[in-house]
Amino acid sequence: MELLLKYAEGLGAERFVDTNNVTIIAGSIPDIKIVQKVVPSLDADEIASKFFLDSDETVVLDKVKAFTTTNATFRDQRYPDLQRGGKSHCDLLQKMVDYLKRVGVIHLATCTPYQVGNLPMKGEHCAWTESSAVAFCNSVLGGRTNIEGLHSSFASAVTGKTPLWGMHLDENRLGKVIIDVEIDVELLRDWYLIGYYVGGQVGLDVPIYTNIRKIPDMPRLMGMCAAGIAGGSIVKFHIVGITLEAPTLEAASGNRKGLQVLKYGKSERRIAYEKLNHSDSDKVDIVVLGCPHAGLDRMRVIAGMLEGKKINKNTRLYVTTCHPMKHVADQQGYTEIITKAGGSVWEDSCGLVLDVDPSTVFACDSAKMANYLPGETGSKNTWFGTTEECIQAALTGKWRGELK
Amino acid sequence: MSKIVLRGRKINGGSAEGVALVTRESLGGFGCFDFDTGKVIDFGHELYGQDVSGKILVFRTGKGSSAWSIAHQALRFVGKSPKAYITKESNPQTVLGAVVARVPAVTEFDQDPTEVISTGDWVKVDADKGLVEITKK
Lengths: 404, 137
Description:
The complex is a heterodimer of chains A (404) and B (137). Chain A has 404 residues and is α/β, with parallel strands linked by helices. Chain A has 15 helices and 13 strands. Chain A has a 5-stranded parallel sheet, with helices on both faces. The termini of chain A are far apart. In chain B, helix 1 (68-77) runs parallel beside helix 2. Helix content of chain B is 18%, strand content 31%. Chain B has an 8-stranded mixed sheet with strand order 1-10-9-3-6-7-8-2, with helices on one face. Chain B has a two-stranded antiparallel ribbon with strand order 4-5. Chain B is globular, with a radius of gyration of 13 Å. The N and C termini of chain B lie close together (9 Å). Chain A binds chain B through residues 3, 6-7, 10-12, 25, 28-31, 34, 37-38, 51, 54, 128-131, 134, 146-153, 166, 203-204, 229-230, 232-233, 275, 278, 352, 372, 374-376, 378, 380, and chain B through 9-12, 26, 28, 30-32, 35, 41-44, 60-71, 73-74, 77-78, 89-93, 95-100, 105.
């Protein structure tokens, strides 16, 4: 595979390592207008060759070699008109889903594969895409992956190889900069904010968070992972006393002395908060929850807040997850509660693909969502806050969030 | 005309020359470009509103989504690719992005290219030799 060789050479990798755990971000191929310009026939094998493997020649695959699952963003096929590209782009993505199943890729359609059947083990060599999942794999699970792109991960799926470089090597997993956390990191919102601020500070270095005492739950760690790589490039972090490879500061840093120390206190939290909140209007048109994809605890909490209530008639509420998770939410009655309140539970899709007028005002409880909404939807009006503030915005149509 | 030469490491081979567009910030891919105009639409980025097509793009490193390579390949498909990438540090996104955008790319220089090169400078890139020659505007 020429692509994988060029990629390895560009990285400076000397050899490859076997991998049997790959995730591919096939749903993020460009808009159908661009795909059709390159492949007028819209033939699936030709699209896969050009857009997944960067091959000018059409390659007809039998089956991929490695265990491979799909990431978001695909589309919720029930609502083509609400998502960018409309029905034609929905149809294109369904065609590529069918192609991927044909070549042996398992369609989980989620940015959180670890929630629904692809859970890397400590030390496992992976070739993962989806930035927040890459950070979660390295930081929380102890799996080993670089931030792959669609092209390199699909090549890894086909060959079962990935460059032995970066996060696959012990020495690169050690922390290089200490974050001295001076304030309590408590709410889900606060985990996004610290990740977002530090992401903007440390470049490619692995940060070590110190003085975080309260053990976070999974949504909080998902938030920190998503924010640190949306606002920056953090593919791995340590939290001393909490994450797997950081029982002590010495272990997390490999006993290196004289590491740079950055402070995270109230003023730093405020900087991140202000960067994520920018709207001229306190009215809210659309509330998006479930970034990264909502798990069962988030579904439970959101359904609990909405039970017996009705959202504002001028406001839309979307909760995004994947079809395996939605199946459980359906069985449990969470989907019905959210739908009865006037909201909508979406599967396999993402708030970022909503087709909206640029004047639309969004509210969300994810720093990743707030970070990408302007570029993806064209709307520059975004509020970010707690899940409770978002639900209140859905009920009243007004943003009343604040950082005390 | 004074010329400055930077020495670095090849990411992706080839040569190119053109006008530099420089940011000290990291650059994204996903949600970062308007594919009709080649302009940066990453709200709040130093390069917001700037057209990257045909430029020698100088930046710190890649950031954000793993859809980086898709976005940079798509710029090639719509004819809006930069002519070359010059990065202070490389990461998997910048490397794979350069490979699929099929543009020369160089990194890890003897000096910080985002400090030495200014927007508007004329820059020649010989990626195979890892050389970048700058003529200040």
